[in-house]
Structure formats: C-alpha cells, structure tokens
C-alpha cells in the first residue's frame, strides 16, 4: 500500500527538536489528523530503560487518548526517533511496533545535518514506505 501524507513544516520542526532533546534515547509521540494528512503532534515520555528502544508511558498515553476522544481527534500516526541509526524500521520495530493502520514516522539523528524523516505503513507483516510531502501551514 503506497500513499502520500502531507505534513506541515512546523510540525516536522517540533518532531526533530524533540528527538534532539531526547537523544541519546529514542523519542516517542502520537500524531493526529486524518488519513493522508498530519495536523497535530503530541510527545509522550519514553519510559524504556534502554537508549535504543522506546516505550510510551502508559498512563500518559491513556490520558492523551482520553483527551483525543473528548475532543473528537483521530490518532493517525506514531513517531519515534533513531538517534544512531537510519530512519528505517528496525527488526525491533517490526516485532514490537506494528500497529496496522497507523503511519509510522521515524526520525533519524544519524545524519550529516540533513533531515531524515520517513513514513511507513505496516501491512501484511511488513512496513511499506509512504511519501511525505512537507508544506507550510496556511
């Protein structure tokens, strides 16, 4: 399944800034919007004891999901960072982070000053790359 997802530049800047602040640990966040368009980013605490893993704080995630439900917002993506590896699903992502139907954004900090943010959908046991189109908010 190939698709195109629109994402505002200011949102990308928040994702990147959060990933940089969390390094060397992975960051994690949920994004709201509608299929094909991301509009809001909501960071979550990473309670994993390892730098190369993330585990969103369950209490914070439940509270956020409750807030989204009350506000009529739809979670359409999950985002995490790879501080020391490419923006590609890792074997751990494949076994532990395979939420069908959600866009998976991965932000790599293992770059030479270039943005490395990629999106994937999980389907039929694998991740499928999605096109991300950055735009200015209007």
Explain how this protein is built:
With 138 residues, this protein is of the alpha/beta class. Helix content is 25%, strand content 38%. The chain is built from three helices and seven strands, in the order βαββαβαβββ.
Write a concise keyword list for the protein shown above.
single chain, 138 residues, alpha/beta, 7-stranded mixed sheet, 3 helices, 7 strands
Short description:
By secondary structure, this protein is α/β, with parallel strands linked by helices. Helices cover 25% and strands 38% of the residues.
Strand order of the largest sheet: 1-7-6-5-4-2-3
SS elements, strand count: 7
Number of helices: 3
Order of helices and strands: EHEEHEHEEE
Low-confidence stretches: none
Taken as a percent bin, the fraction of beta residues is 35-45%
Radius of gyration: 14 Å
Question: Oligomeric state of the chains?
Answer: single chain
Q: Residue share in helices?
A: 10-25%
The overall average pLDDT, rounded, is 90
Main sheet?
7 strands, mixed
Distance N to C terminus: 29 Å
* Coarse morphology: globular
| Structural classification | alpha/beta
Reconstruct the topology from this structure.
Blueprint: E1 4-8, H1 9-22, E2 28-34, E3 37-44, H2 58-71, E4 75-82, H3 91-96, E5 103-108, E6 116-123, E7 126-135
Parallel strand pairs: 1-7, 4-5
Antiparallel strand pairs: 2-3, 2-4, 5-6, 6-7
């Amino acid at each position: 399944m190939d698709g195109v997802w629109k994402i505002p530049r200011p949102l990308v800047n928040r994702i990147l800034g959060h990933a940089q602040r969390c390094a060397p640990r992975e960051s994690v966040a949920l994004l709201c919007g509608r299929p094909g368009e991301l509009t809001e980013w909501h960071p979550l605490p990473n309670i994993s004891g390892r730098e190369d893993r993330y585990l969103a704080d369950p209490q914070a995630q439940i509270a956020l999901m409750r807030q989204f439900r009350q506000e009529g917002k739809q979670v359409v993506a999950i985002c995490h960072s790879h501080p020391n590896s490419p923006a590609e699903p890792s074997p751990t992502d494949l076994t532990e982070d395979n939420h069908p139907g959600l866009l998976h954004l991965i932000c790599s900090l293992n770059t030479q000053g270039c943005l490395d943010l990629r999106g994937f959908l999980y389907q039929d046991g694998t991740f499928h790359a999605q096109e991300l189109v950055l735009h200015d908010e209007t």
